[in-house]
Q: What sequence folds into this?
C-alpha cells in the first residue's frame, strides 16, 4: 500500500467479533449497518475532502466491512502493510470503544513511529482517558474536526515531533492547534482550548465524488463502501446541521450534549442551497434514497423555503426527518419540490407523559394530525419509530404502544395503501455519554452500570446485549427491557402481516428469529449462573453458530426499512464520468 498523508480507519464495534460468541440482539435492526456497526461516520468523508482540497493525500479504510465480508481477511496484516503520516480512527458513538482502541494498539505495534489520532463524540467526551492510553497519541475534540485535522497533519508532515520537549518550538506549534489533546516528551497530557467550533457549515463540502475517485485510485471498492449491503441499497446521507435544538434525555447529539461536550451554543447549519446541491451531486451516481440528516425546520421558515426552492423538481427519493409536529403548509411545499418524499418521525411512545419525560416536545394528538396531513399531501411512506427503555415506561406501557400502532394502522392503512410503517427497538446498548440521562441518571430515573471508557469497552464483550446495557430504569430492569422488546416486536410483527405491511412469509421468518433470540437469551442467562469461568466460556462458545443466526434482523426484517429502487441502483457510467472529471481536475491542480 502506498504512503498517504492520512489514513482514516473505521473499526468494528468489537475487534475480534469473528471469534467471540455475542448475542448482539436488535441493537442495529433499525439502521443500515449490522451489529458490527460497519458504517463509518460522515465526518470521514468531510475530513478526507477537506485535506485533499488542501493538497494532502487521504485514504479511507473501512476495516470493519473488510472483516465482515471476508472471514479470512487478516486485519492486522493489512494494517502492517499500511503507511501514513497520521493514522486517524473514529470513536464517534460508544459501541466502537473496543474496536477503535484495539486498532490503535495494532497500529502502534506495527508502526511505533507513526501517530494515532482519535476523534468523534465519544473521543471528545473521554478525551483525557483516551489520551492517557499508550496507543493514543492525539485526540481532536469537537463536532467539526476538519480544520484541526489539517493543522495536525501539516505539522507532522513538516517534521513535527509526536511528543515534543517542553519549551521547544514543536511544543508551541502543537499548543496552537485548536481542540487538540496531546502529550509532551514527559508524557504529560495537554488539553488545548476547544476554540474551533464553526458557527455555520459554509466551508464544508460533503462531496461523495471523493469516494468515487478514491475507488479508482486505490482499486479497492470494499474500503470505501459505507455498509455491507450498500451496493444493493445505496442509501446516502446529506448533512443539514451540526447540533440540535432539542433535548432528548439519552441523546449524545442533543442541545445539552453539544454544549457540554463540544462547546456549541447553537446549531451550525449548512446553507440550504449547498444542501440542495449535495443531493443533486449524489444523484449523479446513485438512484438510491438520500437521507437528509436533521429536521430542516430547525433553522426557520426562510431556510425551508430556500432549500425547497433550490431543490424544486428533484424527482429522486428523499427522506426527511421531523423532530416536531408540522403544519399543512410545510407538506404542500415539500410535495411541490420533492414529489418522492418520505417522512421519518421518532414518536418514542404512545404516551404523552413518557414522551415528555424523554424530552420530545409534541403531543400524540399533534403528531396524529401531522401523520394525516403528510399522507394526504402525497408522502410516499411515513415511518414511525418507538423505543423501549424510556423514563416512566413500564412493560405494560410498551405493550400499549403496540396496541396504539394497531389503532394508527386501522385508521391509515388499506389493501392499496400501506405507507404508514411503525417500528420498535430498544434504547441500546448505551445511554450516550454527555446526555442528560448519563450526566444526571437519578434525576431522570436511570441507574448506570458503566461510567468510564474502559467500563464500556469491557461491557461490549458481554455475552448478550442484555449484559452490555449500561443502564436500567426505575420502571424496568434489564430483564424487563429485554423481555418487553422481544414481546413488543413479536406483536408488532403480527400486526404488520395483518395489515399487509409485510408478507406472511417474511412475518413468519421474523417470528422465528425472535423466538430463537428469546431462547438464546434464556440459555445465556443459565450459563452466566455457572461458577466455573472456564466452563462458562466453553458453553458460551458452543452457542456461537446459533447466535450468528440471531443477531441480524431480529425485531424486524431489515429490508422493511428500504424504499423500492427502480433500474440500476448505481449509475456506473455516470460514476465513471465523475471519476474522470475529478482525476483530471486533480492533475490540473498539481
A:
Amino acid at each position: 500500500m502506498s504512503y498517504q498523508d492520512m489514513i482514516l480507519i473505521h473499526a468494528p464495534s468489537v475487534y475480534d467479533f469473528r471469534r467471540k460468541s455475542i448475542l448482539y440482539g436488535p441493537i442495529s435492526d433499525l439502521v443500515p449497518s449490522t451489529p458490527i456497526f460497519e458504517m463509518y461516520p460522515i465526518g470521514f468523508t468531510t475530513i478526507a475532502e477537506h485535506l485533499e482540497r488542501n493538497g494532502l493525500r487521504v485514504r479511507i479504510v473501512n476495516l470493519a466491512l473488510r472483516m465482515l465480508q471476508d472471514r479470512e481477511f487478516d486485519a492486522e496484516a493489512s494494517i502492517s502493510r499500511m503507511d501514513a503520516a497520521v493514522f486517524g480512527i473514529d470513536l464517534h458513538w460508544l459501541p466502537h470503544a473496543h474496536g477503535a482502541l484495539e486498532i490503535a494498539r495494532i497500529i502502534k505495534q506495527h508502526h511505533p513511529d507513526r501517530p494515532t489520532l482519535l476523534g468523534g463524540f465519544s473521543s471528545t467526551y473521554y478525551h483525557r482517558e483516551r489520551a492517557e492510553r499508550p496507543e493514543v497519541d492525539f485526540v481532536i475534540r469537537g463536532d467539526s474536526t476538519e480544520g484541526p485535522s489539517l493543522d495536525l497533519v501539516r505539522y507532522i508532515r513538516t517534521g513535527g515531533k509526536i511528543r515534543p520537549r517542553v519549551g521547544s518550538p514543536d511544543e508551541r506549534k502543537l499548543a496552537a492547534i485548536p481542540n487538540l489533546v496531546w502529550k509532551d516528551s514527559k508524557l504529560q497530557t495537554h488539553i488545548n482550548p476547544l476554540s474551533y467550533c464553526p458557527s455555520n457549515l459554509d466551508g464544508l463540502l460533503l462531496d461523495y465524488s471523493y469516494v468515487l475517485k478514491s475507488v479508482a485510485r486505490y482499486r479497492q471498492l470494499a474500503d470505501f463502501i459505507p455498509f455491507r449491503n450498500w451496493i444493493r441499497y445505496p442509501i446516502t446521507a446529506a448533512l443539514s446541521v451540526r447540533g440540535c435544538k432539542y433535548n432528548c434525555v439519552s441523546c449524545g447529539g442533543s442541545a445539552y450534549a453539544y454544549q457540554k461536550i463540544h462547546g456549541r451554543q447553537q446549531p451550525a447549519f449548512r446553507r440550504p442551497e449547498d444542501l440542495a446541491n449535495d443531493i443533486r451531486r449524489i444523484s449523479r451516481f446513485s438512484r438510491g434514497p438520500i437521507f437528509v440528516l436533521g429536521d430542516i425546520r430547525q433553522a426557520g421558515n426562510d431556510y425551508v423555503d430556500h432549500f425547497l426552492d433550490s431543490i424544486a423538481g428533484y424527482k429522486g427519493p428523499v427522506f426527511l426527518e421531523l423532530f416536531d409536529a408540522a403544519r399543512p403548509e410545510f407538506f404542500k411545499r415539500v410535495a411541490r419540490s420533492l414529489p418522492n418524499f418520505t417522512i421519518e418521525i421518532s414518536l418514542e411512545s404512545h404516551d404523552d407523559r413518557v414522551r415528555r419525560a424523554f424530552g420530545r416536545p409534541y403531543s400524540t394528538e399533534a403528531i396524529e394530525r401531522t401523520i394525516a396531513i403528510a399522507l394526504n399531501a402525497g408522502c410516499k411512506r411515513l415511518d414511525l419509530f418507538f423505543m423501549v427503555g424510556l423514563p416512566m415506561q413500564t412493560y405494560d406501557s410498551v405493550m400499549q404502544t403496540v396496541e396504539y400502532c394497531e389503532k394508527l394502522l386501522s385508521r391509515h392503512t388499506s389493501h392499496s395503501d400501506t405507507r404508514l410503517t411503525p417500528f420498535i427497538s430498544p434504547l441500546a446498548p448505551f445511554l450516550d455519554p454527555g446526555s442528560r440521562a448519563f450526566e444526571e441518571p437519578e434525576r431522570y430515573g436511570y441507574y448506570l452500570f458503566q461510567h468510564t471508557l474502559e467500563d464500556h469497552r469491557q461491557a461490549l464483550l458481554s455475552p448478550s446485549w442484555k449484559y452490555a446495557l449500561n443502564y436500567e430504569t426505575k420502571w424496568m430492569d434489564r430483564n424487563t427491557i429485554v423481555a418487553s422488546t422481544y414481546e413488543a416486536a413479536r406483536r408488532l410483527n403480527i400486526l404488520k402481516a395483518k395489515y399487509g405491511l409485510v408478507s406472511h412469509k417474511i412475518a413468519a421468518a421474523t417470528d422465528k428469529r425472535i423466538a430463537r433470540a428469546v431462547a438464546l437469551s434464556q440459555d445465556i442467562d443459565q450459563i452466566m449462573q455457572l461458577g466455573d469461568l472456564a466452563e462458562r466460556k466453553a458453553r458460551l462458545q458452543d452457542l456461537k453458530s446459533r447466535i450468528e443466526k440471531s443477531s441480524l434482523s431480529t425485531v424486524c426484517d431489515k429490508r422493511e426499512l428500504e424504499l423500492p429502487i427502480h433500474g440500476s441502483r448505481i449509475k456506473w457510467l455516470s460514476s465513471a464520468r465523475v471519476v474522470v472529471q475529478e482525476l483530471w481536475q486533480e492533475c490540473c491542480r498539481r
